[in-house]
Write the structure tokens for this entry.
Amino acid sequence: MSSKQIKAMIIKNFKISFRNGELYQDIVIPVFVACMLSLKEQLSALNQILPLLYSFAVLPTARSIMVHLVEEKSKKYKELQGIMGLNQSAYKIGWLLTGYLRMTLALIAFFLFQIIFNSLIQLDWDFYYINSFTQLMWPYIVYGYASINQSFLFASVMNESRIAGEVATFFCVGFSFFIFLTFIEQAATSILFYILVGLMSPQCNIGFEYITALQVGVNRVGASVAWFDPILKQPMNIFPVILINETYDLQASGYQLIVTLFLYLFLALYFDQVIPNEYGISQHPLFLLGINYKENVKNGECLLSERQKDATSAHYYENIREHLEPSIYVDNLTKSFNNKKVVNNLTLRLYEKQIFCLLGHNGAGKTTTISMLTGLINKSKGKIQMYDMNFDTQLKDIRKHIGLCTQQDCLYEYLTVREHLNFFAEIKQSNKSEIDDILEKTELKNEMNQIVQTLSKGSQRKLSLAISLIGNSKIIFLDEPTSGMDAFSRRQIWNILQKIKQEERTIILTTHHLDEAEILADRIGIMQRGELLAEGSCDFIKKTFGEGYTLNLRKESIKYQDVSEILTKGKIIPEQCHKSQLTFQISFEHQDKLETICEKLENQGIEIDLRLNTLEEAFVKIGEHEQLELSQSNTRKSMSLQIIENTDEGYQQFIENVPMSVRDKPIYSLWNQCLAMFQRRFYTTIRTNTNILAFFMPLLTILLGLLVAKFVQFSGRLSRNDEAQLFLKISILACVGVVGFTFNSTLYVTLPVLEKECQLKEVMICSGCRIFGYWLGTFLFDFIVYSIIIVFFLIMGAILSLEAITSFWWQTVLIYLCFGLSYITCIYLCSFLFDNVAKAMKLFVFYSFFYGFCLPMVLLGLTNFLYHLDSIYFFEILVYTFQVIFMITYPFYNYYFAYACMPHLTKGLKAELGGLHLITYESYWYVIMLIYQFFQYSLLIYYLERRKIQRNFKFNPDITDNNLEDDVYQEQQKVLNGSNDIIQAIQVFKKYQNQQQFALNNISFGLKEGEIMGIIGPNGAGKSTLINVLTNISQSTYGMVKIQYADQLHVGICPQYDCIWENLTVKEHLHVFSKLRGLSGQNQQEAVTYYLQNAELYNFRNTRAGQLSGGNKRKLCVALALIGGSDIIFFDEPTTGVDPISRRTLFKTLKQNVSIRNCSVVITTHTIEEAENLSDTLGILIGGQFICYGEPNYLKEKYSDGYYISILHSEQYEDKEILEMLKKQLNNINQIKEVRKNYLTINIKIISFHSTFKLLNQLKQQKIIQEFSISKSSLENIFVLFTKQQNEINDQLGVKVE
């Protein structure tokens, strides 16, 4: 354990807490409570809940620590830092000291402001309390630190950050209500009760401590309770102080808190060791006695006896020609889950200065393999040796040399780039002098002082890569290092990796971009069903599993019939064909026919590209073969397909015998939309643990409140005053209702915020769901849930025969119904304040209680105090002004006083409200204001929603067209002069707040029915912004967007990120979205079944969306955009993070839908090849403006710099020798820099394809070269050229790239 690591943890934690405002919260909440405790006389009706408030003062601090701890587990921060060398003891101590220090700040604020407010208000301490202020301090200090340890205990048994906060709230707040059980004499006089409840909840313990310190009252003679008497000025205190003190005094409470402090810490550390995490690692429950799990490892069988340098378990293997010494040995590595081998006897060797790429389809076992190699999970069997260190006995030493770049960036959004690197340098205890070198190497020097949340996606990936290099890491694991990045940014990462590879490091890479593996990997391993299927170079994999060559034919309006006689040996690839391009596959066995084929095609004026099949095509073939084997036992066909000839587009397509419900137009139905919203609310509620806990919170508090009201006993003058007793019981019920419903508020706020965060709400509304239908369906379910709580309250009140309920039956029902209307709609309105559901769950509970109830009460008490202090007219006006504001804006304020004022208030009872000068003492006025608030909040919600979706029709007065390219200008003129395009964007501009540059700058285009338009551009070019403007998710600043259909029901949207409900199944998603578009009954069932089959999701129909793989989630998003009759569909990077097989399924689904409905599609993507193959029209967006626009082949022709010839030559020949041979036959050759070994790439302006092919084929037959490809300048090369312009613009203007 290192003190440097502990210090680094504390500094990191405090920087984050300061920058995200949590330290401010640590101080503000205690100030609120301190003020309310000082206003005992002014807020005397609330005195019965002051023991609760007393415990709540520092609760947000402890809760915040717990949420952070669970969040670090769920987001893999803890595992990443452990893999990179952070000692787990240092991690725990760092967080524990952080919690203690933050708690110390909260305690200082609490005690300091108590002293200040007591002094200002001149509170007579001895009149209200038996014990001195200092006597109360030391147990509270112990309680503060015990609550931190309690947070550690909760965090040790939870792995989901969203549920962590609700669990803490339920136990800490819910159990604190057990202090009211002291009104039952058997509980109040039982020491066992105090011990058990105190051990379960330190909040109860500190509540008992507060009660025992209260003054009993001077009029008490042998009674256990006294009340505030406005004439005798006796303190109001309903708790049985004498009984409690006789059984469990303040000293006992403090000592038990000390026991709890250490007990919670011990249990937290123990459970952290024995409860398995998601990777399955844990200690034996009796490990403290020296008992451990038996390791099923037979090292004698695992280590190959001869320690072979090139040993492998691969079925297909290419021998290593170089004599290299392996840096990593893996022998017979095996992992079993429930007697099923997920990884089976895997053996391989890894080498320095090489990049090894591990590939495999979903479920192949590659993630499990990487997890074992990094120590995240234990192996079942096998031997691993890294740099001569035994993995079983020297894991700590090995981890000092490991660097890990995870797929999801494990970065702290409030730390800068340099602070991240400093933190990890401290973890690895390395020299910080290397940081500048790493910043230079990863091209982050100019951004080193920016916090992460301001960095582009590309820069965040660079930072993750930089972190993996800290400490001179020898073994680097890179998991999808370029996921979601544009082609230019990916190439930047590639360049960095090529530099790193030369530094005596061993790099293990996983990726879904197979072109990335082709460029970077020295060796590739492909896993299948837990075994190593193949290992070797990229060319070895392609030749072993590839099907031959790909032939791209380009000519205006080319048709299959034009070339079918020439390409009798070719197999058409429909998904890569469009009206000016056909793509064929030629197998290796027919390669001798290629020369003749090329000659005949060139004679017809057809442009040709020829290349060896890519690694992706070989990988897809492996996956398809595996799927075929798995499906042989399944006799049910997923689809009945017909192959037909599509003469319009000139190639064959697969078309489904589709039901009419898929072809029909969408229909608006308010009933169906409300029902869809109701159903999705029902499923998300019953399947979300946090909602279940939030539901039970008011049930628990109400039940305890009813028991208090039933069993509380009054003495003295109050025992003879039934009216006063009734009022006080009603006041108790009102208080517990306030507490219960404030802590129940997350039940209603989380779903709207979640749907806003993942754009689900915007997608549904912009796809035709009416605002009224969305909120009405949601409200109906929420109000039913709320009504269940109220029915429970009324039934229990009737069972207990409480006069406080039975005497005011209809008033109680009316108040609760009106409060429900106001309360729920107010929460909906508050949901607009949050963009992140995690933040809403973390903060909203305490905001509801302290800002929604305590703040108006504090201000009410203070203004009344000032008025009593000096009864001048200004203070009277101030008192009533605040009350009017509260009645208009605060539901809890109206609820409390509507309930408290139900009985007729005599002068004495009014004094029980602390002598408050209320604007009215009539309950019905507060009920009227609750109804008013319902309509007020509803109208505000509708206004805010309506304002977001109103399209802008204002044109930019400063518009100029001088900078537009010819093609772009012509398209703009076509749109301006009027056209019948189904989508028209007319001079669209978009500028975000605090930005000088337009995110969209004079965008104009039109799209015809049945066409697909592709939009490509680098990160920050404005692609997603354009999609959001076109779909009306975001408004344009200037310009106009016209869509032929007046109803948004015809629009389908697939956003950049997965917009799904994690707890709904695939089938339920499709039911909800189909209902939104008017489908029901048999039509709905047919459409749902069709899209389940079409998107290859039928086998996952009953799987919850959160449990799907990344590829299946994207398939679901595509299906949701299509179902119900979408005629205009927008796809924003639909294949990000998707494996090649899933990507092809998505393309097939999309093209089929276009053919069936003749719909129009706009698609943005980072994958240039998919844009080229899918699109009829393509636009390249740079700096918010189209740089070029037209058909893909037209753009390639216009911006082409000739042909590129890529050659893989034999090892005995040098590049120069091959180049000299070519120069004898070809003119004006330019050599292109090539990072792949034995590869030569040249650029030549003009060639005769047939003669060039003939020349290269001769060299191949002479065994001078092994393979070659000839292709025209690709769109990717053009894109990279334009992207350089974008980066120059960003650098000049300092634009933040999203």
User: Anything to note?
Assistant: Residues 218-235, 296-306, 633-656, 1292-1298 have pLDDT under 50 and may be disordered. The two ends are 39 Å apart (CA to CA). The CA atoms of residues 340 and 784 lie 46 Å apart. The chain has six domains: 1-278, 299-542, 547-612, 689-752+770-949, 966-1196, 1201-1272.
